[in-house]
Amino acid sequence: MKTTAILLLSCPDQKGIVAAISNFIFQHTGNILYAAQHTAQPENILFMRIEWDLDNFSIPRNEIRQAFIPLAERFKMKWAIRFSDYVPKVAVFVSSHIHCFHDLILRHRMGEFQAEIPLVISNHNDLKPIAEQYSLNFMHFPITPETKKKQEEKEIEELIKHNIDLVVLARYMRILSGNIVNLYKNRIINIHHSFLPAFAGGRPYQHAYERGVKIIGATSHYVTEDLDEGPIIAQDIIQITHRDSVEDMVLKGKDIERTVLAKAVRLHLANKILVYGSKTIVFD
Amino acid sequence: MKTTAILLLSCPDQKGIVAAISNFIFQHTGNILYAAQHTAQPENILFMRIEWDLDNFSIPRNEIRQAFIPLAERFKMKWAIRFSDYVPKVAVFVSSHIHCFHDLILRHRMGEFQAEIPLVISNHNDLKPIAEQYSLNFMHFPITPETKKKQEEKEIEELIKHNIDLVVLARYMRILSGNIVNLYKNRIINIHHSFLPAFAGGRPYQHAYERGVKIIGATSHYVTEDLDEGPIIAQDIIQITHRDSVEDMVLKGKDIERTVLAKAVRLHLANKILVYGSKTIVFD
Amino acid sequence: MKTTAILLLSCPDQKGIVAAISNFIFQHTGNILYAAQHTAQPENILFMRIEWDLDNFSIPRNEIRQAFIPLAERFKMKWAIRFSDYVPKVAVFVSSHIHCFHDLILRHRMGEFQAEIPLVISNHNDLKPIAEQYSLNFMHFPITPETKKKQEEKEIEELIKHNIDLVVLARYMRILSGNIVNLYKNRIINIHHSFLPAFAGGRPYQHAYERGVKIIGATSHYVTEDLDEGPIIAQDIIQITHRDSVEDMVLKGKDIERTVLAKAVRLHLANKILVYGSKTIVFD
Amino acid sequence: MKTTAILLLSCPDQKGIVAAISNFIFQHTGNILYAAQHTAQPENILFMRIEWDLDNFSIPRNEIRQAFIPLAERFKMKWAIRFSDYVPKVAVFVSSHIHCFHDLILRHRMGEFQAEIPLVISNHNDLKPIAEQYSLNFMHFPITPETKKKQEEKEIEELIKHNIDLVVLARYMRILSGNIVNLYKNRIINIHHSFLPAFAGGRPYQHAYERGVKIIGATSHYVTEDLDEGPIIAQDIIQITHRDSVEDMVLKGKDIERTVLAKAVRLHLANKILVYGSKTIVFD
Q1: Which of B135, C232, D19, D184 is 20 to 30 Å from B176 at the Cα level?
Q2: pLDDT by residue (tens digit) across D127-149?
Q3: CA distance B145 to D101
């Protein structure tokens, strides 16, 4: 695996941006491995992800950001540069549902995610034995309406202490307050067990059953302060029939909850998602 | 193709129903070709579809209904008997969208539906040439808020005059009033261009675009007086990405609108749907 | 959960079979909960699965088989009766691939399968630590061409000793010889990582890549002596693109391998599969 | 709709290609609207599709090709330039199956394809009335083993006379000989009614039925001299069950045959496909 630099940017579209960026890379002897762009209309905003080989790149790695600033300012970019060998730190929040948590850990072990998981946080103790079976650092923060503020402050302390880059809510089943959400804007991924915007809020399978739908779904999204309203990253569905009880839906839904959450985490960790308002640009 | 009788029924579940019905058929030397049942819980209501060969069946066809009454009363059934060689009469309501209409006609021609289409009704004249190209009886009932009541009365007259069994709204884009809906209860099929209950009402693709969903869908359902709330028959979705504009969604959506509507019409014409409250039992 | 009896049968189709069976159940005060049938054409063979509540059933459980024999003989049935509270014993054969094994164990723990897993057999030691983490009985039978016969004999001994009902090859990656296959006819489930019959044999993702297909798949099937030719139970696919390398396919394929294998195991354990020649009847 | 130029190219990958091309466009005041690239490994060949606005582009349209030659030679490119306002001419070959033909014509009428259809060729007369209903130029070339060579020569004459850019085999059901195939290399699209490479050749639904698969599929591909071996453009499948007869498969298959063929035609007409050996790069 080559070490690469990944430039993520958005800016008002105009002539010459691609040329300017590709020249910047070429003049410093970088080889572009992957480039994707998208122009959102009617706003005319360009989104771009460009990845190049750092071998023989003439700018030392720790000076690339500085070197890119003039170009970024010329085109009024919002931008970030990431390096492919950086190992992000992920905190997983769980409740008492095991399937998404277990699935993430399994994928992590099989090498699907380039990440470390220094922290598992839960408001229950149910998954502690499993977390410890995997030698994970499990922290229990029981939350009641009275203790919520205080407990979330402690959680934030832990997130900061462990340099957490991404928070994954693996069926955490609790609403995070604004403090955490704002601190980790576009860095908290949730899995909701319905095809949003249908059946937002609690007990979506129950509501799907009552409505008599023929599909059920799952949606992974970034968390905002508005419940189940954040930018959607991935969605999938499965067909059901009149024979499926709520319990059957819960069972079948687990499979897509797992894959849809895993897909979102994988895309995020690979720096393939740009957020734009309430939407995502996914350069898959 | 054998001629068959199809019994559709629902009743409170209890011991002996299947035995009683299969005895009824066997004692009159009928051969069961297909049987399916479902018990809705917690209501404990049995739904059943049973189809048998009429060859050598000892009860004359026009006496079967009468002969079945004692059994039906014993188990407090809601029931209907259909015959496989009956050719239902379908009225298609269209507006100016061509794709669902064209698709239905093509399928009809290819023999996918056992039905006659004695009537095409529209509030526009746009599809008249196409309907006539297919030698269909196209009737134009322009509708304004002022004329709606009167025009619908005329439409009802035509539906009755042509002995219409099923009304298909092939992107009709207008709300039918209660008179028609009640007259054709569970016999009007609509196609809505979203995965209901998400994006009910107008302009679903626009709303899907604004929400930034990663799937779009289509839903066929029976029409009730509550817009887009009727019992769902079939649903399907396709994946989209940030690259898809509203126009792209409209284009891609057409494919699933066509197949989802056609599936519902095919199931209805084959007497494979039972309606239960706001839901359908589909014995596919 | 009610305790039920499940009758699985096949026989030449003729009039009165459904009536005879439903009478048998009704006369002994059983309540039919679920019934499904299928007639294979042109062979005219009836397949049936019928499930009834054992509460108040007037035949004692251990006499039901005996009581059913006259009926079975009258209609020349191949048949079996199962009881829903029986807990089947499953042996899982693994190699060094972790994902299917891990997934099965997770599902088992979450209660998706009603089964015990008294035995994990492998030709490698790689998964031993994981099996033991789950407190599973892991047995290592390294196999070379020279030792194959002998080792398989020992495996058979273990299968018999543990009263194994079902063998699951969770990416076992080795061909079982006829001895095991015949002993466990229609009771060994394999997962093959392609949409059979395409890419049978080794390295299917490599061959899929070389052919440039736009979908990859997975197939669960009963094992016969002809490699990858056994009756198919379930299949699924995912879309891929030119961007997917063989490694990407391996990664993406894991998700469907897991779900397709789990589906087959779930259906088998729920006594919902009948095998007919090289095909399966799945009463899902 | 803006008029754009579309550059399709492949060449050995090396540093500076993207920069060189984007500079070429920028220096002549073109605005890149869309760019996509892919590097095939291990061959290290770059594939690229880049589209830019021709408004204000400083090179006159008819001189762009000439102007690009030095760059193309420097990087040893295989390349083509297309213009978005060019309307390709499509010949549709049909046999007696109506569904794909009808579907293409419907889509064409609804504006899904930017193309003209000056020619419909068939070895049967069955679809003549429908073609003429749509005012299409239908030509009948009955083919026997004896007349094949001569008739195909006449067909080629017609293709050339009408400046045909793309040949679509809408279930033509006959093998074209090398003369046509080579003349229209990577410009003949066929629809095969299976998920290739499974069930290549004749009667795929029959073979699918016999094998007992749980999915059936359709594949659109460019035609080469090796039957059903050409580069695959698009594939899709649907789930089936043991209840589906061969006739049911034929019926269900029609839906995916139509969409998979239409997708391939749409991608080709939009200049989004590059062929590489036996594979396609699809910049969708």
Answers
A1: B135
A2: 999 999 889 999 999 999 999 99
A3: 41
| CATH number of the CATH domain containing D175 | 3.40.50.170
Q: Which pLDDT tens digit goes with each residue over A7-42?
A: 999 999 999 999 999 999 999 999 999 999 999 988
Per-residue pLDDT tens digits for D52-77: 999 999 999 999 999 999 999 999 99
B100, B106, B171, B250, best to mutate vs chain D, most D CBs in 10 Å: B106
> How confident is the model at residue B279, as a pLDDT?
96
Is the CA virtual torsion C194, C197, C198, C201 positive or negative? positive
- Name the residue facing C214 among D211, D234, D243 (closest C-beta): D234
pTM score of the predicted model: 0.96
- The answer to whether residue A35 neighbours chain D at the CB level (below 8 Å) is yes
Q: Are residues D223 and D129 in the same domain?
A: yes
d(CA A195, CA A176): 21
Q: Is the Cβ pair B106, D109 closer than 8 Å?
A: no
* Shared domain check, B101 and B215: yes
User: A 55-74 residues with CB below 8 A of B?
Assistant: none
**Minimum CA–CA partner of A27 in chain D:** D16
Q: Is A234 on the interface with B (CB under 8 A)?
A: yes
Which of chain C's residues have a Cβ under 8 Å away from the Cβ of B22? 18-19, 22-23
Which of the four pLDDT bands, split at 50, 70 and 90, describes residue A94? very high
Per-residue confidence band for D174, with pLDDT thresholds at 50, 70 and 90? confident
Catalytic residue among A103, A165, A228, A244: A228
Q: Which residues of A touch D31 (CB under 8 A)?
A: 13-15
The answer on C207 and C119 residing in a single domain is: yes
Q: Which two tokens stand for residue D284?
A: 């969708």
| Percent of the residues in chain C that have a pLDDT greater than 70, as a whole number | 100
Query: What's the pLDDT score for residue A259?
Result: 97
Distances (CA, A) of C52 to B8, B47, C7, C24: 22, 16, 9, 11
Residues spanned by the domain of B162:
89-282
A228 is catalytic: yes
